[in-house]
């Protein structure tokens, strides 16, 4: 791949994907809100993996910051071979207990930023005849858990459409739709993860491996771990009234009194 840009790279799945890429010898551009965290990650990667690592502190809920990242993707002197749209947003409240302002922020991070960065990267990659885009969706795309599910469903469908548009160009687009992952996402979003058995959770390493291999193979949609692949099939086949009952807002683990923080 040569060089990759990863959003939400300071922790969780984004950090694991970045480490996988660094271990393979790829240079990296790491994007997240916290420059301090990014600089520490970059220092360790340079020391251990001996790769070049750029740091971009950016809040992807802000249009100006998204444009700065898009400008980096346009570079012809330092081309990006893989874009990883991983940055997430934990609302930490059901829709009616949230605010319109936070809902707007979530949409900006999980939809608008992905659209802008994918549009930029895909056009540049198409002109070169090679490249890849990895979008981190979720099994939640098949559920009925409010704004988060809706955003991840948009991302999944968007990926399919873009992959079809780029077929034959040498540019591959993949959406990974993991189930539960052992990261700090749920705690930061105010979601009670203790409601699920520990064996429901995949490791970030496993999800990162499956996702990156899917990009290399040109797979459009991939769901890591057999259990969640079966669950995805069941959710697609089940009548929507059953999905709303077993995977609706009341099953999200969110308390009306908690308000999460964006990753």
Unreliably modeled segments:
255-263
- Fraction in helix: 40-55%
End-to-end separation in angstroms reads 26 Å
Structural class: alpha/beta
Oligomerization state? single chain
The outline comes out as globular
Task: Report on this structure.
The protein is α/β, with parallel strands linked by helices. Helices cover 48% and strands 13% of the residues. It contains nine helices and seven strands; from the N terminus they run βαβαβαβαβαβααβαα. The protein has a seven-stranded parallel β-sheet with strand order 3-2-1-4-5-6-7, sandwiched between helices. Helix 5 (146-165) links the parallel strand 5 (131-136) and strand 6. The longest helix is centred in the middle third of the chain and has 29 residues, at 100-128. It is globular. Residues 255-263 have low confidence and may be disordered.
